């Protein structure tokens, strides 16, 4: 079974379509949240995602902010204004879909969360301290998370028994033979200075994990961001991948 793992699509339909095409036929698609926010195509992304085979998805902080009626003071000005604009764009049906997304999903071997298993919507796992706390929290061998927009993984170091952080580049297949936390990077807004859309593939029989990157037409997305009146910064950052 081949599973496509994606996160942080952030209303970027062109990047999402490039990833779907690049991944080819898959048996299931697991999404780690933040379908919306920042980008110009929230409804198109939600509609496309929901039609994918075996699609399951957890709720991200942007999904929560867009579909909730709480204030948005946790967000900086530009993320906040994108959230307010997204609220106006999203159809009532898609708003309901975002609102009803679960915060975590647990399969036989994987815990799925946007931020972290213990604080699913908000916590970032970017250092070994937060990785260790979450490894001790989960009851499955593996966790899949997004939120940092970085294609990184944390696995147990056999000598120290502490989590070790690795940044993953395309073409390096990892055998998942020790407990670990895996992040596929971001489809719609990569932040590792590589502007290509990032995603992960699990081969469930071989238990392998691999990161892939897909090029897409960034200029087209930038033009739609300008047209929608979204913050210009959200367009500029796509070209540089931050
Ligand atoms: Zn995000």
Task: Give a topology summary.
Layout: E1 2-6, H1 13-23, E2 28-31, H2 42-50, E3 55-57, H3 61-67, H4 77-89, H5 92-99, E4 104-106, E5 110-113, H6 128-137, E6 142-144, E7 152-156, E8 163-167, E9 174-175, E10 180-182, E11 197-203, E12 208-214, H7 218-228, H8 232-240
Parallel strand pairs: 1-2, 2-3, 5-6, 6-10
Antiparallel strand pairs: 1-11, 4-5, 7-8, 7-10, 9-12, 11-12
Helix pairs in contact: 3-4, 3-5, 7-8
The chain binds zinc ion.
SSE-based structural type: alpha/beta
Q: Which molecules are bound in this entry?
A: zinc ion
**SSE order, one letter for each helix or strand:** EHEHEHHHEEHEEEEEEEHH
Number of strands: 12
The residue fraction in helices comes out at 25-40%
What is the molecular shape? globular
End-to-end separation in angstroms reads: 32 Å
Q: Could you give a short account of the major beta sheet?
A: 6 strands, mixed
Q: Which spans have pLDDT < 50 for at least 5 consecutive residues?
A: none
* Count of discrete alpha- or pi-helical segments spanning 4 or more residues: 8
Oligomer: single chain
Approximate strand percentage:
15-25%
Instruction: Let me know the average pLDDT.
Output: 95
Task: Give the spatial strand order of the biggest sheet.
Answer: 3-2-1-11-12-9
Task: Provide the gyration radius in Å.
Answer: 17 Å
Give keywords.
six-stranded mixed sheet; 242 residues; single chain; binds zinc ion; alpha/beta
Description of the structure:
This protein has helices at 13-23, 42-50, 61-67, 77-89, 92-99, 128-137, 218-228, 232-240; strands spanning 2-6, 28-31, 55-57, 104-106, 110-113, 142-144, 152-156, 163-167, 174-175, 180-182, 197-203, 208-214. The strands form two sheets. A six-stranded mixed β-sheet has the order 3-2-1-11-12-9. Strands 4-5-6-10-7-8 form a six-stranded mixed β-sheet, covered by helices on one side. The longest helix has 13 residues, at 77-89. The protein has eight helices and twelve strands. It is 32% helix and 21% strand. With 242 residues, the protein is an alpha/beta fold. Helix 3 (61-67) packs across helix 4, helix 3 (61-67) packs across helix 5 and helix 7 runs antiparallel to helix 8. The model has no long low-confidence stretch (mean pLDDT 95). Bound molecules: zinc ion. Zinc ion is lined by residues 8, 10, 34, 60, 62, 147, 149.
